[in-house]
Amino acid sequence: MKKDLVIVPNSLQETIKWLPNSTFHEREIAFDHHSGRGIESYLIMGAILCKARDAEDWKKADCVNFFEWVLNERKIPRTSAMKMIKVWEQFGPNLPKFSDIIMKIPFENLHEVARISHKLKGDNEVEELLHKAAVNTERDFRNNIREIENKTPTDSCDHIRREPWERCEKCHKFFKVER
User: Fold this and answer.
1) pTM of structure
2) Are 148 and 133 in contact (CB under 8 A)?
3) What are the per-10-residue average pLDDT scores of the chain (179 residues)?
């Protein structure tokens, strides 16, 4: 029995060209190839998941729905798959514009930018936040996110309003003290 040779794209640009005409089998092999290999692979897997969802690959694998296919066939938790899809849907169309900076950002931070990008005004603010995600410390980046979400950043809070808490000496559970 002769098996067809599957050529797996190695870069994001190759994937973008390869994906529209890819088959179910080719997408499975490419996805397995790129699992756990860094930010570019997360983007590639996000692109493949979006295409697999749109092509209804889960039906070909006799699964009830897309996320059952993701969990059972691809062995990826639903939340991870949703993050990959969100990042790809947000940055896939603008990849040529942002690709240099995106490759320098940890995936979780990139997901945070994708998650709140609808609150930003245009590509310039998105690009600015991408640069912050690449350059700032984790704490500073979280404070940038808090500012965008209209929450008080931890670095500018005076911590005057505190809640009193007590801990049970027996079970060590914390309880808020009622005044």
Assistant:
1) 0.70
2) no
3) 63 86 82 74 91 92 92 92 94 84 87 91 90 89 91 79 85 84
